[in-house]
Automatic annotation (TrEMBL):
Listed GO biological process terms: recombinational repair
Alphabetical list of SMART domains matching this protein: AAA (SM00382)
Gene: radA
Domain of life: Bacteria
Region (Lon-protease-like) location: 351-452
Protein name: DNA repair protein RadA
GO cellular component: cytosol
Function: Plays a role in repairing double-strand DNA breaks, probably involving stabilizing or processing branched DNA or blocked replication forks.
Residue ranges constituting the RecA family profile domain according to the UniProt record: 69-215
Length: 452
């Protein structure tokens, strides 16, 4: 094996060292020194057999550039396509992150089993037998999917050269290992080097590569932040492991919007696409219960009806507890303060618990009004009618603020059979005739008089 020249650089100030040390002498930062390759031997990493290595690019006028066929590979998974912006772009690198056990391997294996192209699924985490067992639960009839258990990038490229797959999936980037770097798999320098080799392969052969990445305990993708800069698309697979719903979001997408969202349900036979989420997220109980309210939210371009549940009870201990699942706790405190100050509810000595059903995290401000309504309903122990819903933001002075794309929310509520939707008076609505009653309110007192 030819010798590779590596050296150590501080990631903070760029000072170079001959060997690793804990603290940088120059900037005094700890743990910033990382091994980097400075010179590789000839014929080292990916080298495409057909294309000449020294291809130079010439500048073109922007309107001379041909963009007519931005062909995307259909993944045959509606939710995955939606999040990617219409399919996989050839030659792109996509990174999928998520907590352990959330279903990353299941999702990508399921997609590779659906594809009619030749796919290579490289796993450094499970054996071929284990993957076969999983594949049998999902879709046993696919003959285009090849499984390779390997962690060394040089060997992977050798297999790729022999197989010439149309798409490559790597599970996971943290298990890969390149011979050119001494440090162990999963270290910053290994991840960087392996990703660089994969990018070179993807761009030269126009083969898309999907990578699975682990996340750290604070939810970031493990490894250097630069990994997220290097790839074209960063997807996050999230959800509560105890719930069946999984949400796929794009955090970064060079080829599409990052607003889109895919929803899956984990079943015994893999992940099922949920194309009409509203119907599942609302519990279909017959009786009306106090503390429940339904919000017409938007996730990306898609309207989503979500049920909010609140429980308000007298605090048993001295300090009242406030807790929120799926909703920002600071925002909950703010809404409670608004209710106290503007509508005169004494909530200071009450425990307030708030839960968004389905284990979904909502950051659409339009959910505010439903949160307030559910708190009022629980506090007064008055059940709201089952067929009303809410879509508005609540401001600090108790004003009901308009939200974006309110008409889309109204139409979704109407489609699902709601009879009334509460929205802000300041929203401009140009819908001609609706079956659903659109109740306009301007301040929080209006809501109180309407509901209680
Ligand atoms: P996995 O894809 O291994 O997670 P990750 O790669 O993100 O660590 O997901 C494993 C979980 O999914 C595991 O707890 C079992 C569950 N599962 C199902 O419920 N149904 C299925 O068909 C499969 C394949 C897995
Ligand atoms: Mg896995």
């Amino acid at each position: 094996m030819a010798k590779v020249k590596t050296t150590f650089f501080c990631q903070n100030c760029g000072t170079q060292y001959a060997k690793w040390q804990g603290q940088c002498n120059a900037c005094k930062e700890w743990n910033t020194i990382v091994e980097e390759v400075i010179q590789k031997p000839e014929k080292s990493d990916w080298k495409s057999p057909t294309s000449p290595t020294k291809r130079t690019s010439v500048p073109l006028r922007i309107n001379e550039i041909d963009n007519s066929k931005e062909a995307r590979l259909d993944t045959f998974d509606g939710e995955f396509n939606r999040v990617l912006g219409g399919g996989i772009v050839p030659g792109s690198l996509t990174l999928l992150g998520g907590e352990p056990g959330i279903g990353k391997s299941t999702l990508l294996l399921q997609i590779s089993l659906k594809l009619p192209y030749k796919t290579l699924y490289v796993s450094g985490e499970e054996s071929q037998k284990q993957i076969k067992m999983r594949a049998e639960r999902i879709n046993p009839e696919n003959n285009n999917c090849y499984i390779l258990t390997e962690t060394k990038t040089q060997n992977i490229f050798k297999q790729i050269e022999a197989l010439e797959p149309d798409i490559v999936i790597i599970d996971s980037i943290q298990t890969l290992h390149s011979d050119y770097i001494e440090s162990s798999s999963g270290s910053i320098s290994q991840i960087k080097e392996c990703t660089t080799e994969l990018i070179k392969f993807a761009k030269e052969t126009a083969t898309p590569v999907l990578l699975i990445g682990h996340i750290t305990k604070d939810g970031n993708i493990a490894g250097p932040k630069i990994l997220e800069h290097m790839v074209d698309t960063v997807l996050q697979f999230e959800g509560d492991r105890n719930h069946v719903f999984r949400i796929l979001r794009a955090h970064k997408n060079r080829f599409g919007s990052t607003n889109e969202l895919g929803i899956y349900e984990m079943q015994g036979s893999g992940l099922r696409e949920v194309s009409n989420p509203s119907e599942i997220l609302i519990s279909k109980k017959d009786e009306e219960l106090s503390g429940n309210a339904i919000a017409a939210t938007l996730e990306g371009m898609r309207p989503l009806m979500i049920e909010v549940q609140a429980l308000v009870s007298t605090a048993v201990y001295g300090t009242p507890q406030r807790s929120a699942t799926g909703f920002n706790a600071k925002r909950l405190n703010m809404l409670l303060a608004v209710l106290e100050k503007r509508a005169g509810f004494r909530l200071g000595a009450k425990d307030v618990f708030l839960n968004i059903t389905g284990g979904i995290n909502v950051d659409d401000p339009a959910i505010d009004l439903a949160v307030v309504a559910s708190i009022l309903s629980s506090n007064e122990d008055v059940a709201l009618q089952k067929d009303i819903c809410f879509a508005a933001e609540v401001g600090l002075s108790g004003e009901i603020r308009p939200v974006q794309r309110v008409e889309q929310r109204i139409l979704e509520a109407e489609k699902l059979g709601f009879s009334t939707i509460f929205v802000s008076k300041y929203n401009k609505i140009s819908l001609k005739k609706t079956v659903i009653k659109v109740q306009l309110i301007s301040k929080i007192e209006d809501l109180v008089t309407e509901l209680i």
